[in-house]
Amino acid sequence: MLKNVFVLALIVVLTLPGCTMEKKEKEQGYTARDELLGTEIIINIKNSKEAPGACDDIFERIKQIQGKMTVHNIESEIAILNANAGVKKVSLSQDTYNVLQEALTLSSLTGGAFDPTVGPLVKLWGFDSKNFGVPTDKEIQDKLNLVDYRQLQIEKSRDTFMAMLPRDGQAVDLGGIAKGYAGDEAKRILLSHGIKQGIINLGGNIVAVGTKEGGSAWRVGIQNPLAPRGTFLGILQLKDKAVVTSGGYERYFYENGNRYHHIIDPQTGFPSESDLLSVTIIANQSLMSDALSTGVFVMGLYKGLELMEELEGVEAIFVTRDKKVFITSGIRDIFQLIDGDFSYEQYK
Ligand code: AMP
Ligand code: MG
Q: Taking Cα atoms as reference points, which of 229, 189, 225, 182 lies closest to residue 206?
């Protein structure tokens, strides 16, 4: 049941995040922005009397999600879960429980390439604090022993939600999935205000709600991972889909001439060394796109492709280190290459 896949090539040199709306679409209608979840969130919808209230509600909701799930606030539910690792179970809101539950499902789907218990390694490399540094092999081994999504226990009975990390030092990090959840919630809030069309951009995670005025597709630019932010390698035409790109070019530091990025391979404890520069996932749910983009990036091209071909309702764009791009067959008609340095090549 493998879909056809295509390859293409790109070039250039530099850095930065995911997918962005083309400028002219950003400038139309009503736009609201806020800095949350460590990124800039931009909502672009049609001007209406509902628009400001809907955006306020969205930002309030995302603040709430941030308050529950960030590791940067010792009072967040995730920070409390981590502080009680090896000690006791803690109670959670339904929100955090739901995200943990989805995170575990996607961990298992990616064979542990996505793993929300990667926290001790994220911390060790300094990606939580920006206090970067290459750890010793011994330090990496010690932390690696703590990483295993199968050990994270979650339970629910009626209206009570609990979780526990059984071993001292274990830690959950939802940096690879929380923005996705926030995107789904933002969409739900727009719809609840009767707003059926719009674009929500969470630092490059795009939620395209409905269609443009008149029913045509939104045009979403896919970042060239080797070029400055806003340089697109292609354009996707989307109706009611969520798009997320993950790549080693998004956050990194240099030490002794080597570059170390923020997506950790839970098998090695090192920044993932796959053959990929970036992975873009297109799905109905932003949470799914987010977790899969991180996990599939770690899986690498071939394993990642196999998984993307098996999964219904999910499409992907893979950009490899040797400047090729693979596209799942479901987006062949809606993805357009705009950089002449790229060219398609069929995988199977
Ligand atoms: P993203 O930018 O969505 O690909 O997510 C990267 C963020 O997720 C990192 O900054 C970490 O907080 C966290 N993370 C890193 N590696 C992993 C992994 N293998 N599985 C789950 N989360 C990860
Ligand atoms: Mg992600």
A: 182
